Amino acid sequence: LEKKVEDIENHMEEIQNRLKYLQKCSKQIEGSSRGRGSHQQSEFPEDLLSDLVNLVAMSGSSGAMTIANEFTSEHGQVCNKKNLCLKIEDIAKKERRKEEGDARPVWHVLPEYVNLLSVKTLKHLRREKDARMNSKKSGTKRKNVDDDDGNYTGESSRGAPGPDGNIVDYPPYDGTEEPRECKKAFTLFCTGTRKEVKKSLDPISRKDKGKVNSILKQRWLELSDEEKGVWRRWQEWDSLRYRRDCVIHEAKQTIKHENSGAIPKKRSNPEMSQAVYSNDNAPKSSFHIPKKKKHPPS
After folding, report:
1. How far does CA 213 lie from the centroid of its chain?
2. Which of 3, 75, 198, 297 has the fewest other C-beta atoms within 10 Å?
3. Given this model, what pLDDT does residue 231 score?
4. Predicted TM-score (pTM) of this structure
């Protein structure tokens, strides 16, 4: 039965890819310059609705402005940021569904837009849900921690599938420090490509952050959908890594506070610190180039 379901999903995915290709050809024939021209529309273009729905469905707990920035980085400024964020909130609801194993509020696409989800997105959502439910069945987070040294021993603690489908190990993490936030595909691309870009420049240009960032933006825009898909799969891997690290950190802190008799403080939600979107405080650039962290002198 699982084999038949997989065959049907693969067939559906092939059809969806053909439809996307035909839609792309149609835009080229019509000479559409939406998103690349100087004119900015106020209303969200309905022909990009499917792309937005799939992006939102796979965005987890990211904020609306973060999703809007990622969408704009791929499709251009199709409408103003405020309307794009409103559209995101129209097609999905950010909430914590305990019955589906949600550990925190995440985006759930509304029923009337579910038909726009691609097979790839549906597979991703099913894997995510299965992982959450398996974790829930295994018991509380405390049961997934060794009582002696606080090491996480739950399922999928070693690693997760990478872009090629093979398991890629997570980096060692003991839960002492705050977990490193998961990154978006574009950020991972910039991090992984920055050294290569700098090597291609002369010594003076390497120090010009504006020039380096401009080249990174252009390289991202020139990537094919298949090449961007590799970085999106790394994004999925990193989100699973972050979830594992959160479990380890929270369990470690629980044990620490239980031993000291103190009441543990809840970790602040990074999404709560996100600025309210408006035309006034929306970022001037569609891209967010990751900054290199400065390490304190030893």
Report:
1. 21
2. 297
3. 93
4. 0.47
